[in-house]
Amino acid sequence: MWPWTGAKRCRLTYARENACEINRDVARRILSDETGEITEYSEAARLTRACVYSPADHERVMSGREPRGGPWDGAALKKMLVSEAALGYLMHLERPVIDDKGLPVRVAPGLWGRATRDALVEKLGPKVPRQKRAQSGTHLLSSVALCGVCGFRLYRSGLPVAMTCKSRAKGLSNCQPSPTIQVSILEESVTGWFLETFGDHAFMETVYDPGNGVEEALDEVLTARNRLRDDRAAGLYEDEDDAAWYRTRYSELTAEIKRLRAVPIRPAGMVTRPTGKTVASEWNAAPDDGARRQLLTTRANW
User: What pTM value is reported for the model?
Assistant: First the structure.
C-alpha cells in the first residue's frame, strides 16, 4: 500500500534521465544550503512527501512492475551522492575500475564532476560537534518558534494544537508565565509579518558552480602518471617492449598535463544570483509548510 492518498495521481512516468535530474537537484540544494536545514535526511523526507519514487520503486517501475510506495532513506541517499559511481565510473568493491592507461573506466555520463563530488563528501561528512538533524516534517514553526520570556523553543501540544513553552517543566529555566498560543493563530501572525516585511524582496539563490572541470581533469591525469611512475619503480616495464609502451604512455600523459595546465581554471564554488522572483512568489509556490519553513530560516535568499 502507498503511504499517501491519491496514489494514482502520484505515479510519475518519467524516464531514467529524470531520475538523474532528481539526484542533481538534491545535490544542488544540499550544496547551496548555508543554514544546516537541508540534509540528506530532510531531502529524503521532502522526496517522500512529494511522492517521488524511491530508487527501489523507480527500478520496479522501469522494469514494468508495480511500485510498493517505499519512502526515501537518508543514509542511502547520502551513499548515492558521495559514491564515485555518480561520476559515471565502472565500480568494483566500491572503487573505480582502472583501465590499461591508468584511468578510471567510464561507462556512463556522470551526474556531476569530481569537484562536485568532493564538495558533497565534505558537506555530508561527519560534523564535530555533531549538529542537530534538520527538521524534516511539514510543520511551519517546528524548532523556529521561541518563547518570548525565556528564549527556549516552543513545542506543539494539546487540542486544539498549541505552541507551548516547556522549559520550566524540563528544568531548563524558571519561565513564568509559560506562554501558550494556538498554532493557527501563531502561524497566521508569522506569515503575515514575514510577507509584509520581506514579500517584495527579490529572491536570490545561492548555487554551487562546479567550475569548468579543468582541475579535476588535471588531477585525474596526474594520478594516472604517478601510478605509472610507481609501477615503473616497482620493477614493471623492464623488458624492451614494455619499456617502449611505458615511454609512449608517459609522454602522452605529460603532453595532456601540459595542455590542461595552459587552460584557465574556473574553480568550483558558491555563486549567489537573482532568480527574477520575489520572496512572496516563492512562498506561495512552496509545496508545503516544510518548504516555507526553509524560506523562514534561509535569510541569505531574502
Answer: 0.56
